[in-house]
Amino acid sequence: MASELEKIEDFVMQELIKAGRGAHTLDHTTRVYSLCMKIGSELNADLKVLGAAALLHDVGRPREDETGVSHSILSGEMGRGVLSDSGFTDEEIDQVVDAIRTHRYTEGLEPNSLEGEILSDADKLDAIGAIGVFRAIAQAESKGGGIEAFLKHADEKLLKLKDLMYTEPSRVEAELRHNTLEAFVNQLRNEIE
After folding, report:
1. What is the pLDDT of residues 5-17, one digit of tens each?
2. DSSP per position, 99-130
3. Domains detected in the chain
4. Measured between alpha carbons, how far is residue 132 from residues 151, 159, 172, 179, 180 in Å?
5. Contacts from 143-148 at CB under 8 Å and sequence distance 24+?
6. What is the DSSP annotation of 40-95?
7. What pLDDT does residue 83 have?
8. Which regions of the chain are under pLDDT 50?
9. How do residues 105-117 score in pLDDT, each as one tens digit?
């Protein structure tokens, strides 16, 4: 599986270099991949499909603003060529694209597979906890926001994520990460008041 993913990793690195700073950089993709492999191993998921989906899930982010098309659509479509070049069958490519398409909970789509559920969970897990706090602050700053922008994002999205997990291993991890996020948000509010 490692050699099948090398071309995909190279492709993702080249595309995400364009992303610059913020919350959806290469290190986010690497963490989501690691979480997917851990959870996927526990749940006997198709690790080939899951690994490729995890690597490609945000590759369309740099183009989302300029095209107006969701990165969950762009990422899957952008990945088709490199998946084919990496030896994935048409069926596997469709599974990867579907997992990517349904990973973004804000679009109201439900994953159609275990791999899609795991990808969605891993992406949400990386948005909470200490890493999630760091990412949300980095994103707020990259968009010219400050403390209030971070708190608004925490209230509107981040603090709700623990209740949106699909898999049991993700629910357990989400509870721990949520507690860290909630404590930080509460402390921040106390200090600014």
Report:
1. 888 988 888 887 7
2. HHHT--GGGTPPPSSHHHHHHHHHHHHTTSHH
3. 2-192 (1.10.3210.10)
4. 12, 10, 16, 12, 9
5. 143/22, 147/188, 147/192
6. HHHTT--HHHHHHHHHHTTTTHHHHHHH-S-HHHHHHHHHHHHHHHTT--HHHHHH
7. 94
8. 22-23
9. 777 789 999 999 9
